[in-house]
Amino acid sequence: MTSRSKNAVRGYETEIEKSREDSNWKKAVELAQQLKSRSPQHESLAHFLIGEGKLEAHLDEWPPTKENIERAQRELSEARGYLTLATDEAGKRAGVALDAHLLLGKLNYACGGYDEALKHYKLAELNTLTEKELPVRSLRIVAESYAIKGLCLEQNTVPGSTSRFKQAERESEMIRSFELASDLTLLYLQRTGSGARAGPTLETALQRVPILHIRAGRLQNAIDRYREMLNAVESVSTQALRLTLTRQLAEVLMRGVTGQVYKAPEKLSVAPPQGTLTRRRDEYVSEGPWKPKKYAAINQFVPRNEYEEVVLLLLVGEAMAVRDAVLSQSEVFEAARAHALRNAVAVVDLLALAATRWGQLCLLLESLERAMKFSFGCAHIWRQRALATAAAAPAPTRPAPPAPHSHIAPGSSLWNAGVRAAGVARRATPLCPSDAPLRLVAANTCYRMGWIEEGIESAEEALTIEEEQNGPMLARCCLFTGIGYQMKAQKTNSRIDKDAANDKSLKLLIRAVQLDDNDHLAFYYLALQYMHLGMLNEAMDATRSCLSARAECGGGLRLAAALWSCACAGSRGARALAAARLARQHYPAADWPLAALAALQLTWETPEAALATGKELLTLVNSSESELETEHNGYAELDALSDSQHDDTQSNRDGASIRAESAGVYRIERALSEGASSLSTQRPRAPLADHRAHAWLLLAQLCLRLGRVSAAAGCVSEAAALTPFSHLVLYTRGLVHAASLEWEEARQCFQNALAIHPTHLDSIVQLGAAYYNLGWLGLAEKALREAASLEPSRADTWRRLALVLAAAHDPGAAADAAAAALALHPHEPALHLPL
């Protein structure tokens, strides 16, 4: 009978231990009550087990929070009684008194008795426990005891009379309790595998230690603690917690760490294998019985700086967030889906900050692409993706002449990136009905792609939103809408449409200046609009305001140089040269200040000085090509180097114009075939081919001014080797033939240039001059009148037309044309800006 009784008791103890490890408290209480009735000598153990079961069952349903204190005080009295019985002398002899005191501390914490909890931990001698191997259940009890002790110390207010030494000692004890609790928690979760949860108390302890270090000003200690917890071997139960810790460490590194104070993590040493036949090596180490296992491998990656560590943390966090995403759109999973989405959004937002700061937008785009699968209809994710796609669109390969919305060649990487950015913005804007900045970004993208009407539509939507809300972006909305109408006016060939667009642009730009009188871009575009309309005094006033707001504005400096270089400027030509040289000082790596300076030196200095500047420009472009970065992820925004338009002579805009039909398909084919005839012998096109070609063409025009026709022809050949399909090459080649009085060849070159770009004004004017010199006065008059209809404010067109009409024996019309040329001549700048 005695042996049967002992076997039955062992059976009960085995079942009870299994129930405790599985957190099956109802069964554990039932078994403990049966043990008490069958074996009176185990009464103290039964009391402990019953009290433990009732306590844990209550806390599983009602966690120990301040909101549940009153309920705990009512419903835990029975558990308190059983645990108190287990602390008597019989309990001490049975070895359950210490655990009973630890659970009583937990019970008193749940009931709001923080001082009583600390008394029980003092009776259990928690501070002097020996670190040794513990059963799984005991491991959790000890971990919770340290965590609750730290929370109780934090909850109790310190009297004002307490000395600093006592306060520091109390803070040190609190942090040590949380550190032990976090280590034991990680070890407990590693040993239990997938069947356990940390619970709110232990999760609070895990996150509390770094926060306390940060509050005390010990930032490096906080970072080291985060690293220790993240380097612990992962288990199923710690996945959600690791995501939180990863995000928190990334935030700490981004906010409070710079390169000077950053300390890279140390790689854990791995013990060498024992014996030569050992093939397997453990990939973790443990520093003690109460320390969690940590990853340690030979090929383990260790970040070298804060950039690598932040990006690594965020990529790992993003992978965990995406893995836990809920794809089902069923209402049953709505709460889980929202929670997973919040976690993913938090990580992606941090990644956006880091990637934008360090120029790694490709990582952000990949992350946002992965987020698309679980963010259906999420306005925030789509907005982030739209902004990131627009920001990641490659910027021009080098600082170009001031041009925010230069034409992008279809099929290029810039074109593909722009199409992608515009498509994402088109999908995101309906999800954000009151987001004006997003629509401005979309408008900017459309302007750069040459989709002016779509860009104006987006800008006007933003303007409507800001007007309804009287928002802070109203001035910028007026600016972007005005830019759109300004571009539309320059593109259209209809006089009525051009005047209407110019009128709208002027009104919007004036309003933008009135709303924000410190915006240099608004003043710049207003000055450019005044210059388009021939209002030079107003243009100069706006230019001065632009440079007052931002003295180094490239567009403002170029406008100042153009305005001071007008034919009526007289002695102010020196000011134009000074403005060009000042722009060169501000932007030594850009080629447009040198090009402007060379154009001005032709008029105000000597052709030899202009030629020297042109050679310097060519040297700059050639040296910059060797240093060109193959990939650039900067913002495509309006700024000092991108705040005016490319010269129309450098544009490849849509050729659907009044000359498209008259040009004829055969001319296009002939022009392109001439450029393609030597294409097979050319090397692959360099990234800066357009810039180098423009530099060669500028040198060619300078050589023509010096009378060096053969040198100019050589420069044109160099440009043709770089851009064989450029209308500018054909135009400049026509100038070379005209300088040699080869008018038939010049006529063919100008016609070929117009076949590629039918609205190229210089080619139309020079074609009229070629017709005049060939004696074809009717065709000359037709060409020049066409040029005058496209740009009535060009004095050179009317001067040539007067000559043609005089030769055609029409003195009245010739006199009118000459009068128009004289009226426009004083307002024509020596430096032709992109108008």
Would you mind describing this structure in some detail?
This protein is mainly α. Among the domains are: 2-156 and 165-232, Alpha Horseshoe (Serine Threonine Protein Phosphatase 5, Tetratricopeptide repeat); 650-682 and 727-827, Serine Threonine Protein Phosphatase 5, Tetratricopeptide repeat. The protein is built from 38 helices and two strands. The protein has helices spanning 2-21, 25-38, 43-61, 69-75, 77-85, 89-94, 97-110, 114-123, 136-155, 164-192, 199-215, 219-230, 239-256, 306-323, 334-358, 361-371, 379-392, 413-428, 436-449, 452-469, 474-491, 495-515, 520-532, 536-549, 554-564, 573-586, 592-604, 607-626, 660-663, 665-676, 689-705, 709-722, 727-739, 743-756, 761-774, 777-790, 795-807, 811-824, and strands at 284-285, 294-295. Strands 1-2 form a two-stranded antiparallel sheet. Helix 37 packs antiparallel against helix 38. It is elongated. The protein starts with a helix and ends in an 11-residue tail after the last helix. Mean pLDDT is 79; it is low at 1-6, 275-281, 396-406 and 626-687.
